[in-house]
Amino acid sequence: xxxxxxxxxxxxxxxxxxYFLSELKGQQLEIHGTIHRADQRIHHMREQLRLHKGxxxxxxxxxxxxxxxxxxxxxxxxxxxxxxxxxxxxxxxYELNISCQLNLLEALRRHSPEAKVLAVxxxxxxxxxxxxxxxxxxxxxLRPNSPYGISKVAQDLMAQQYWFNFxxxxxxxxxxxxIGPGQSESFVASAFARQIAEIEHGLQEPVLKVGNLExxxxxxxxxxxxxxxxLALQCGEPGDLFNVGSGTSFPVHHLLDILLNLSAxxxxxxxxxxxxxxxxxxxxxxxxxxxxxxxxWAPRISPRQSLTxxxxxxxxxxxxxxxxxxxxxxx
Length: 331
Known about the structure:
Blueprint: E1 2-6, H1 11-23, E2 30-35, E3 50-53, H2 59-69, E4 73-76, H3 83-86, H4 90-111, E5 116-122, H5 147-166, E6 169-175, E7 178-179, H6 188-200, E8 207-210, E9 216-217, E10 220-221, H7 222-235, E11 241-244, E12 250-251, H8 252-261, E13 268-271, H9 289-295, H10 303-324
Parallel strand pairs: 1-2, 1-4, 2-3, 4-5, 5-6, 6-11, 7-10, 8-13
Antiparallel strand pairs: 9-12
Helix pairs in contact: 1-7, 2-4, 4-5, 6-8, 6-10
């Protein structure tokens, strides 16, 4: 069975590839992946993967790759995923998220019309949540309040349209916040963990910069999330839509408290206005019951274990850099 993972060198893509290689060895999967720039997250797996380097914004290149691979399963994970940065570069968020998926679906329609396709949207499509909407189910109105959220609505509805109009077997998931080792520092848990690791290694003054610590979010470990993505394509029917999250939420300061508790360093916490978003929803909680009923999925990894692994990841990256007197390169 040929699997195509777009964005295989990204945080989620690399975790999904690792899951396939370590947990699904008996599935006889031939794993293909698209990469655009760096491949450091998958460097240790390169010999077990079939990689295609190029730009998903180039429809001719996408067409050639899909015609060559003719995948049975497609996990479309390549995306602009920085909500805060999308305010500064809205067109980049729209172009990357919309055009890349359009090129992929067009190529699949031509060369692999029987493929099962997972289109990954985000809880950001719900945007301005009314307190009466919590927990958020699949029927909650879409009120996106960021350029990123708008781009993910377009991806979501585009995948539905290709099922309606062309019979392409698309399954949509709206994933809520996820965390785990290897995540970019543009996300809150990783941003905290990197700063703590650098403070511990003497690469930063003992002042940890933070944004809004009161916003409540529904966090799931990325390793649980990629297992959910696999189950979504195994169990989902064409046109299905699932919310995927833990079903619980807690404020950002809870993440910070756990990470500070995992460190012996004496650290001062200071709010940085640059880390605040123009529009912040106070509380987001997923209702994952539809997905749980269909697949039997539930998170296995606790937030504390996730954060322990995130901090250990950044400690590993900074330990070598501290000897050189330089900062760790972001993933």
